[in-house]
Specification:
about 220 residues; alpha+beta; Pnp Oxidase, Chain A; 9-stranded antiparallel β-sheet
Length: about 220
Amino acid sequence: MRSKTDLSQLRKDYGQQELDPESAAADPLEQLHRWMEEAIAAGVNEPSAMHLATVDATGAPSGRIVLCKGIDARGLLFYTNYASRKGQQLSEQPRAAATFFWPELERQVRIEGEVSRLPAAESDAYFASRPYASRIGAWASRQSAPMLSRTQMISKAAQIGLRYPLQVPRPDFWGGYVLNGRRFEFWQGRPSRMHDRLLYLPEAASLWRRSRLFP
C-alpha cells in the first residue's frame, strides 16, 4: 500500500525564533516552565501533552501520549493506572523519556530520567480535584486489559456511581509518578534545517552544564 501523497516531499521551513544558550535559563526545569507558559499563552492545542516512552523487562519500548500535571523541583508529574502497560513497565524498569512538541512555536523538548511514584497523599489530593465522572472512569477502566465490549465498562461505571454517589475515593491501583529528568534537550526550529539544539546535563549538586548540539 502506498500513500496518495508523496511524504518525502512534505517539508516546512522554520524561522519564528531562536534559542540562545546565553539567554536560556541556567536550570532546565526553569527553561521548561518558560516554554510551557509561552505555549499556553500562544494557544497551543494540549500544551501539557507529552509523549512518554517506557521499556519492559526485555528492553522492548512502547510509547503513548499522557498529560503532564505539574512541573516542580522533583521533575515532571503525571498520573495513571498502576496496572496499565506503562505502569507495569515502570515497575520493571523505572526509567522513561518524555517529549513535548509544540509545532505552533516550532519547538520540542526531550527529557530522560528515572521515575518514582508520588506519595499516596499527593495522589489522593490530585484525584479529589478531578471531575466526578473522571474519578468514576478511573475505577471503571482496567487500563490496558482486554475488553469484551464497551458495555462492560459502562456497567462497571454505573456500579461505581451507585457505590459512591458523592465522594469517590482514589482506587489503590491508580496514582501519580514523577519523572526526575537527568538529561534535557530543547529544540527550536530554524531556517534551512539549521536548528538550535540545547543540551542540559547535571554537573555538580544543583548545577547544570549547557551546550549546543548539531541538529
